[in-house]
Design brief:
Layout (H helix, E strand, L loop, with lengths): L3 E3 L2 H5 L7 E6 L5 H14 L4 E6 L19 H11 L3 E3 L3 H4 L19 H4 L3 H16 L3 E5 L3 H13 L5 E5 L19 H33 L3 H10 L9 H6 L5 H15 L6 E10 L4 E2 L6 E11 L2 E11 L7
Parallel strand pairs: 1-4, 2-3, 2-5, 3-4, 5-6
Antiparallel strand pairs: 7-8, 7-9, 9-10
Helix pairs in contact: 2-3, 6-7, 8-9, 8-11
Length: about 325
C-alpha cells in the first residue's frame, strides 16, 4: 500500500469513495499509540474503505507559555508510520487551509465539562480542540473518527459535541497504548531525560495502585456476599488477606462497593512519594470522575468511572487515566 500525501480538502474530496472513510486525527510526531489507532481504523474501514490520518498542529489549543513552537514536526516519519499501519491518505493541511480567514472569530465552546480538570489547568484548550475537530470533520467528511482513550476528557467532549450538534459521524475510543514500563505513549515523552522518565512512571504506577485497590475491594465485597454466616464471612475475608480487625464482615457486606475514597488514597500515596524524588513530580490533579461530565464521583456511585492524573516532570506535562467500574462486584474494567 502506498500512502498519498494531500494538503487540501479539494484533493481529498476528489478521491473516489467505495466504502467507509475512517479518520484518525493527530498533531503529528506519530508513535505506536497512533499506529494502533490507524490499524484499528483499517479494521473498521475494511479492504474497500479508506483510512485518512490528519496531521495538523493546531495553534488554538496551545495556551500562553505552552509548547507550540517546540512541538515536534516529523512529517516524513509520520507518513512512513502511517503507511506501515495501513493508512491510505495523510492529510496535512496548512493553517490557511484549516483557518482560511485567519484565527476564527466563531468557535466551538466546550461548556462546563471543558472547564474542569484539563480545562482548569489549560484555559481555552478544549474550545480550541473542539473547534479544530469540528473543522477537520467537515474537511475530511468521515463515516467514523477514532480517538485515544488516553485523552479521556477530550474524547468525552468530542462525543458530546457530535451528539449535541448532530454531526453524522461515529466516534470510536481506542484503549491507551503503553510502553513496556507502563508509561502511556505520548509525543511529549521524548522531552523527558532518563531521570525525569523514572519519575514520570509514578503517573501510571499511581493509576495501577488505585486500580488494584479497587479490584481488591470489589473482590472482597463479592466474597463477603457469597457466604451467609458471620463466622464464615470473617474466615473468607481473612483468607483473601483482610484481617477481621481491618474489615469486619458485616461492615464489608454493607459497605458501598469499590470505595472511591480508598481508590483515590492508594493512587495519591504513590504520587506523594514521587513528589520527593529527584527530579520531583509536580502534581496538577488526581481525580476520580464520572466520564459523562467529568465531575468527581461520590461514595455511593455505581457505573463507569475514570481515574485521571496530570503532572509535570521538569518542563514536561503528562496526563494518564484508567477506566474503573463501580458496583459490579468485579475487577476494574
Amino acid at each position: 500500500m502506498t500512502t498519498t500525501l494531500l494538503s487540501t480538502a479539494d484533493e481529498l474530496h476528489a478521491r473516489v469513495r467505495a466504502g467507509r472513510r475512517a479518520v484518525v486525527m493527530t498533531m503529528g510526531a506519530l508513535h505506536e499509540g497512533h499506529a494502533t489507532l490507524i490499524r484499528t481504523a483499517r479494521g473498521i474501514a475494511g479492504p474497500d474503505g479508506e483510512v485518512v490520518v490528519t496531521v495538523f498542529v493546531n495553534p488554538l489549543q496551545f495556551g500562553q507559555g505552552e509548547d507550540l513552537d517546540r512541538y515536534p514536526r516529523t512529517l516524513d516519519a509520520d507518513i512512513e508510520l502511517a503507511q506501515k499501519s495501513g493508512a491510505d491518505v495523510v492529510f496535512a493541511p496548512s493553517a490557511d487551509e484549516v483557518y482560511p480567514g485567519g484565527e476564527p472569530q466563531v468557535r466551538i465552546t466546550a461548556g462546563p465539562m471543558g472547564e474542569r480538570l484539563e480545562g482548569s489547568s489549560r484555559p481555552g484548550h478544549f474550545d480550541g480542540m473542539l473547534t479544530v475537530v469540528a473543522k477537520l470533520l467537515h474537511l475530511t467528511r468521515p463515516d467514523v473518527a477514532l480517538y485515544g482513550q488516553k485523552d479521556a476528557q477530550q474524547l468525552a467532549l468530542i462525543r458530546r459535541m457530535v451528539r449535541d450538534l448532530n454531526f453524522g459521524v461515529e466516534i470510536v475510543g481506542v484503549p491507551t497504548v503503553r510502553e513496556d514500563d507502563g508509561l502511556a505513549l505520548s509525543s511529549r515523552n521524548r522531552y523527558l531525560s532518563a531521570a525525569e522518565r523514572r519519575t514520570a512512571l509514578a503517573l501510571s504506577s499511581a493509576l495501577f495502585a488505585g486500580q488494584d485497590r479497587h479490584a481488591a475491594q470489589e473482590a472482597l465485597r463479592a466474597r463477603a456476599r457469597e457466604v451467609p454466616a458471620t463466622r464464615a464471612r470473617a474466615e473468607a475475608l481473612s483468607a483473601i488477606g483482610e484481617s477481621r480487625a481491618a474489615a469486619d464482615a458485616h461492615a464489608v457486606a454493607t459497605a458501598v462497593p469499590g470505595g472511591p475514597a480508598a481508590v483515590r488514597a492508594a493512587a495519591r500515596q504513590v504520587l506523594d512519594e514521587a513528589a520527593r524524588l529527584d527530579p520531583p513530580l509536580a502534581l496538577d490533579y488526581l481525580a476520580l470522575v464520572d466520564p459523562s461530565d467529568f465531575t468527581e464521583i461520590g461514595r455511593d456511585f455505581t457505573g463507569e468511572a475514570v481515574l485521571a492524573v496530570a503532572a509535570r516532570v521538569g518542563t514536561t506535562r503528562l496526563i494518564d487515566n484508567v477506566p474503573l467500574t463501580f458496583g459490579t462486584f468485579g475487577a476494574a474494567s
